Amino acid sequence: MPSWRFSFRKRTLDPQYDSELRFHIEKLTDENIAAGMTREEARRRAVLEFGGAEQIKEELRDVQRIPVLETALKNFRWAWRFVRKSPSFSLVVILTLALGIGANSAVFSAIDAVLLRPLPYPEGDQLMRLEQFHRKVQAPLGRLAPARLQDWNRMNSTFQAITGYYTEDESETSGILPEKVTAAFVAPRFLQVWGVAPELGRDFTPEEQRWGGPSAVLISDRFWRNRFGADPSVLGRKVTLDTSNKFSCAIVGVMPPSFLFPDRDADLWIPTPLGGPYTENRDVTWYLTIGRLKRGVSLQQARADLATVQAQLANAYPKTDADLGVSIEPLKETTVGGVRSSLWLLFGSVSVLLLIACTNIVTLLLARAQQREHEISVRFSLGAPRAAVVLQLLTEAFVLALAGAVLGLIVAGAASKVFEFLAGNLPRVDEIRLDARIVLYTLICSVVATLLCGLFPAIRSTRGNLSNSLAKTGRGQVAGRYPLQWLLVGVQVMLAVTLLAGAGLFLKSFQALERVSPGFDSSQVLTFHVTGSYAETANPRTLAQRIDGTIDALRSEPGVEAVATSSGLPGLARNYEVELRFTDGESTPGHKILANNRFISDGYLAATKIPLLEGEDCRKGFGSQETGALVNRSFANAYLAGSAVLGRHLQAAMSNAFLGPGEIRGIVGDAREEAVNREPTPTVYWCGNGFDPDPYYMVRTRTDPMTMTETLRRKVHDIEPGRSVFDVKLLAARLDEAFGEERLRTLLLSFFAATALSLACVGLYGTLSYTVSVRRREVGLRLALGALREQIIKQFLFQGLRVTVLGCLAGWGLAVAFTRGLSGMLYGVSPTDVATLSAVILLVLVVAGIACLAPAVRAARVDPMQVLREE
Amino acid sequence: MPIEKSDLLQGTLDMLILKIVTLGPIHGYGISQRLRQISKEVLLVQQGSLYPALHRLEKRGWLAAEWGESENGRQAKFYKLSAKGKQQLKKEEWNWNRLAGAVASILQTAQ
Predict the structure, then answer these.
(1) CA distance A662 to A700
(2) Domain, as residue range, for B53
(3) What domain count does chain B have?
(4) Which of B77, B78, B88 to substitute to test the interface with A, most A CBs within 10 Å?
(5) In a designed cystine with A268, which of A83, A183, A422, A610 is the match (CB 3.0 to 4.6 A)?
(6) Are A130 and A289 in contact (CB under 8 A)?
(7) What's this model's pTM, rounded to 2 decimal places?
C-alpha cells in the first residue's frame, strides 16, 4: 500500500475485523473437528484454508479508505482528456474565462493596492492628517503655525507624535548646472511619525532642529543615485540651495527608496529650526500636519482629544485660537480620496463581465452535457454514485477555469501598466503590482467561476431518469425548446445592456466635457515653474520685482504673444473660497460674500484670452493696494447687481495678509477656473506678484509652444542663473491629465461593455446554432412539405431576437436602477438619459440580429433530400 | 470443475451475495457455505474476495450489518439486505437475465 494514499480511520476498525475473521476460522475448525481431525490439526487446516488474514484485513481497511488524492488525480486525468478531446470548445471556454478572470484580477489588483492595503509605512493605519479650520468664517486655514503644532504635540494624549512639513521647489547649485530639487521642510519628530529610519546615516539630532544649530539634510535614494552616483561616503558632503540666499547643509543620511513622502518627487528633507524669530507667531500658516496615533486609539477618541486641546488653547490665546477647530482624517483617506468610487465602479462592472462570461459557459456546458447524456448514463449504470459524476464534471470545469485563470494572470500582470498609462495621476498607482495576494485572488476567482459555471450543468445533467436516456437513441429524439439556455442568453443580454448603458453615459459625459467652452483658451499656452523659496515672501516687493523681471524678459522673446503668472492654472486651480467684505459701504445686508480667490499677474487676460468686459487690466506691483483686483461677471451680478462695481474696495472678512484691501479695477468674463466641468463661481482676481514665490508661468506663443521650450529656458537662465525651469508642459496637456480618472473609467467601462456585448452575442449565436442543429430534421421535413426558406429564416431570427428584446427590456430596468448611482460622476448628461439608453438598445438589437442571422440562414440551407436520406 | 472468483464475471459476486442475504440475516461463514451448497460446489469463493465484497456492499448501503450471537453462542457479524440493496438486486438480476438471454440466443444462433 503506497504511503501517500490519504486515508481516514486507518486502524480504529481493526478489532472488529479480527473478531469477524476469527469467527470464520473457528467455524472452519469446528467443521474439521466434525470431520474427525484432532483439535490442533483442525485448527491448522482451517487457518491454511482461510488464507492470509493480514492481507484480507488490509483489503478491508482499503474499503473504508476515501482515496481523496487518488480520486482527484483520476478526475484531473479524465478532465484533461476531455479538454484535449474537444480543443475548440475548450479554447473558447478558456479564453472567455481568461478575459473574465483576468480583467477581474486586474481591477482587483488596483483596488488592493490603492484602497485595501495600508500605506507603505510601518503600521500605516495609525497615520492621520490633521488640519485646523475656522469655525465661523469659511476660509481654508489647513496649514498650521509652528507654535500651535508644538502645542498640539505637547498637550494631546492620543498621538505618539505630531509633525509637519511643507515643500518648496528649489535650485540645487553644488553641481555644474543648477538642478531643480523638491525640498520638504520638516518639523521635529518627522521620521518618528513615519516609523522609517534612514538607510544610510542617521536621523536629525535635537541640535539640528534648534534655531542656530548645525545644518542638516536627509536625501532621497533617487537623488543619492542620480546626483552622487550612490556614493557610500556621501555623508557629510554639502547640498547648496541657491534660490533665495545661498544656503548649504550637510548630508546626514539617505532615505530608503520606498520612502516617497510627500510625493515621488521629494529629493531633500531639511529640518525647520524652531525657536527662531518667526516661529512664535500663531497666525502664520506653515505646516501640513501628520500625526501617528497611539496603539489602540480610535479616530473618535483622537478627534475628541484634539478638540479638548484646542479648547484649552482658545482660553490661553483667545485672539488667535478662539475660533479654530481641528479636523482629523486617516492619511490613507486623504491620499486616496475620490478614486474610491471609480475603482469600485470598475470592479462592479468587471464582476458583471465575469458573471456574463460564466453564464455564457453555463450555456456551452449545458449544450455539451446534452451531447454527453449517453456517456453519463453509462457511468451511472456501471454503479458510479451521483456525487462522483458531479465531482468529475466539476473537475472538468475547474481544469478549464484554472487554465483561464493562468492566462488571466498575464492580463492582470499588465494592469499596472494600463492604469499608469490611462491615469498617471491616480494615487498610489505605482504600488499596483502582481503578487501572491493577486495570484491567490485569481485562484479564488477560478474556484468561484468553476462553481458558477460547472455546478448547475453538472447537477442538471446528472438528474434525469437513467434507464430512459440509455434506451433513447440520439436520432429518434424530438427537438426540445431549451428554455433554460434561452433564459441564460437573456440574462447575458440584460447584463450587457446595463454595462453598455453605463459606458454610453460616460462617453456622452466625456463628449460633453470636450464641447464645453470654458471661458478661456488653453491652446498654444506653455506653462512651467521657476524655482523659488518661501523665504522670499519676507520681502514681497523684491519678490514682485524679481518675477516681473522674468516676465518682461520672456515677453521680449520674438514669437511670444503674452506672458503672465498665476498661483493656479485656469481649469486646474484649487477652489480657494473665502468670505470677503467691502471696505466702503455694505452690499446687500445679511448677504455673505463668498468668492473664489485667484492670484494673477498683469497679462493674465491676454495669456488666457479671458475677455475684459469693463475697466482695465491688472497693474504691475506687489500688493493689491497698488495693483487692485478684477472680479468676474458672476461676482458683479451676485454681489453688486444694480450698483457701481468699478472703484469698490474689497478685502477678506477675516484679516488675511494676501486678500486685500484692494480696488476693483475691472470686470472680466466668467471662466471655469476651478475645473472645466464646474460652472464658474463668483471669483476675485487679486493682481500682483508678491504673494507666491513659485507661481505658474504661462506663455502664449504664436507658433507651436513646445518648439520654444529651449529658447524660453535659456532666457530665464540668462537673467536668473541660479534658478531652474521645471515642470514644462502645455496647458492643454495638463487639462487633459486632470481627467485621467474620468478617462480611465470611461475607457475601461467601454471596453468591458463591448466585451460583454460580444460575449452575449457569442452566447446568442451558440445557442441558436445548437437549436438549429438539433432541429435540422424538422426543418428538412418542413422544407420537403413546401415551407419557404424565408419562413425558416424568419422563424429562427425571431426566436433569437425575441430573447434579445426581453433581455433589453430587463436590461433597461436594471440600467435605470444602476446608473442612478453614477449621477455624481457624470457631466452634462442625466443618468436616465433616454437617448443613450435607446442608442444602446438599438446597438444591441443590430449586433444581436447579425449574430442570429448566420444560424438562421444555415437552417434555411438545409437540404431536405439529405435529411430524409439520413433517416 | 469449480469456478473461482477470478473467473467470475465482475460484479457477479456482489449480485450473488445480495441474493443469498435475501434469505435472512447471515454471517460471512454462512454465506460462503450457502454459495458452495447452492451452486453444487461449482462456485468456490475465497475469503479474500468475500469479506472485501461484504464490506464494500455495506459501505454502499446495500447491506446492513450488526453483531449478534451465532448458533453456537459466539459473537458474529450478521448481514441483511437493506431497502436500497433490494432495489439494486432487482436491477442487477434484470440486467443479468437480459445479458444471459442475449448470450444464450447468440450461442443458439451460432450453432
Answers:
(1) 28
(2) 5-110
(3) 1
(4) B77
(5) A183
(6) yes
(7) 0.76
